[in-house]
Write a structure and sequence with these properties.
alpha/beta; 5-stranded parallel β-sheet; 18 helices; binds uridine-5'-diphosphate-glucuronic acid
């Protein structure tokens, strides 16, 4: 099929390359000429495993092109909207002006049977408003909502083989045509057995918001348990293992630690709360405020723990911060707990040296005073204490004997609960984690 993708950020760049990889002819548009030039040369402006490979092969096949000229989308049958919906500057609500701008830019280029497919995460009710906007502008194109569930670090795999597809289309003219077009564009995944949920626009929008809210709640639930476990001498990891064996609960997303971050979960729960308030239903999701508060408290807890474990005085304390990305296999530092811990320790007076295998550039752009090391050994050299905040494999696999030889004092705070306490203690470390004795 001939498809266009509007917005070449994380979502759009991966989606465009994946659609071309599946055999579709893709034109991908972004207003940022630098981004378009980098992607056209096969260089994604962010780290995502597997993306450079499918980008290069799709560009070479001639099926994928990037442009800043929106008029080049004319002739595409499907137009995916993949622009960002960041948190507003002055509230928790989502800023959807890029979605509106994408629709405005698309309108003059739409054919009568085109399908506009929203993928961005938007407050429920947005799609209906956009459908009315198309109609009132005289377009007979159909609007569909097809939320994206990809995880950073697994974005290519999640796009090529998603665990479900959600097609939201309003009843009326264009309904059957839009569903058929969506089934065709995702034919490879559907024939491999991916379940499809066909629904209305509002449900499709809400599925995405509800999924991220549920995941965030699961993480904050286990982090709340880690506070209780810590006060009572219980072990939160064993607790998670034990409740996770109940398939109704499940073990995934029950890893206690410094909490969730990134460009999605934090802003999505805030946007959901803001939208519920607008609907007069703030109390229905009031618990999300608590989910957010528990999550942010974890960062403070880690900062306090580092200082306490090192004797209580942060001033001139040499701290090695291991990790800056919000999670491994990513260079994303948006709302990163790791970066907040590094910043918080520096503000408290510590001499912080951080290392991350991928995220040092993005971290330094957000926090120019951040002192970074060239490698993990350099970060650890002469440190009074180390704190592991992003569970990159190279940190999880560190040999405590080698680490101990580098540091001034053998102290480590494992803020992701991923190291073996017995092994670190046997090497002479003062080891502590969150919610484990
Ligand atoms: C999340 C969702 O998982 C995707 O399904 C969704 O498509 C995406 O947001 C989005 O809305 O675009 P992502 O932000 O890539 O994906 O990251 P996750 O893998 O969900 O991790 C989020 C955060 O939770 C990370 O900071 C991670 O360290 C933390 N986490 C995760 C925990 O603290 N504990 C866990 O047990 C699991």
């Amino acid at each position: 099929m001939r498809v266009s993708v509007i917005g070449c950020g994380y979502l759009g760049a991966v989606h465009a390359a994946a659609m071309a990889d599946l055999g579709h002819e893709v034109i991908a548009v972004d207003v940022d000429a630098e981004k378009v030039a980098a992607l056209s040369a096969g260089n994604p402006p962010f780290f995502e495993p597997g993306l450079p490979e499918i980008l290069t092969s799709s560009l070479a096949s001639g099926r994928l092109r990037f442009t800043t000229d929106i008029s080049e989308v004319a002739g595409s049958e499907l137009h995916f909207i993949a622009v960002g919906t960041p948190q507003s500057d002055d509230s928790g609500a989502a800023d959807i002006r890029f979605v509106d701008a994408a629709i405005d830019a698309l309108l003059p280029n739409l054919g009568p049977t085109d399908v506009v497919v929203g993928k961005s995460t938007v407050p429920v009710g947005t799609a209906q408003r956009l459908a009315e906007r198309l109609l009132s502008a005289g377009s007979s194109a159909t609007l569909a909502w097809n939320p994206e569930f990809l995880r950073e670090g697994f974005a290519v795999k999640d796009t090529l083989s998603p665990d479900r597809l959600v097609f939201g289309v309003a009843e009326g003219a264009g309904h059957q045509h839009a569903l058929a077009a969506l089934r065709e564009v995702y034919a490879t995944a559907i024939s491999a057995g991916t379940p499809v949920v066909e629904t209305d626009l509002a449900t499709a929008e809400l599925v995405k918001t509800a999924a991220n809210a549920f995941l965030a709640t699961k993480i904050s639930f286990i982090n709340a348990m880690s506070e209780i476990a810590e006060a009572t001498g219980a072990n939160v990891t064993e607790l998670a293992d034990a409740i996770g064996y109940d398939t109704r609960i499940g073990r995934r997303f029950l890893n206690a630690g410094v909490g969730f971050g990134g460009g999605c979960l934090p802003k999505d729960i805030r946007a959901f709360s803001a939208r519920a308030e607008e609907l007069g239903l703030g109390s229905s999701v009031a618990f999300l405020g608590e989910v957010d508060a528990i999550n942010l408290r974890q960062r403070e807890r880690v900062i306090a723990r580092v200082i306490a474990d090192a004797g209580g005085d942060a001033v001139d304390l040499k701290v090695a911060v291991l990790g800056l990305a919000f999670k491994p296999q990513s260079d994303d530092v948006r709302d990163s707990p790791a970066l907040d811990v590094a910043r918080g320790l520096a503000v408290a007076g510590a001499q912080v040296t951080a290392y991350d295998p991928q995220a040092m550039g993005p971290a330094q752009r957000r926090f120019p005073d951040l002192n970074v090391a060239e490698n993990v050994q350099q970060a650890l050299l002469d440190a009074d204490i180390a704190v592991l905040v992003t569970e990159w494999p190279e940190f999880v696999q560190l040999d405590p004997r080698n680490v101990g030889d580098l540091m001034a004092h053998k102290r480590i705070v494992d803020a992701r609960n991923v190291l073996d306490p017995a092994q670190w203690r046997a090497a002479g470390f003062h080891y502590s984690s969150l919610g484990r004795p």
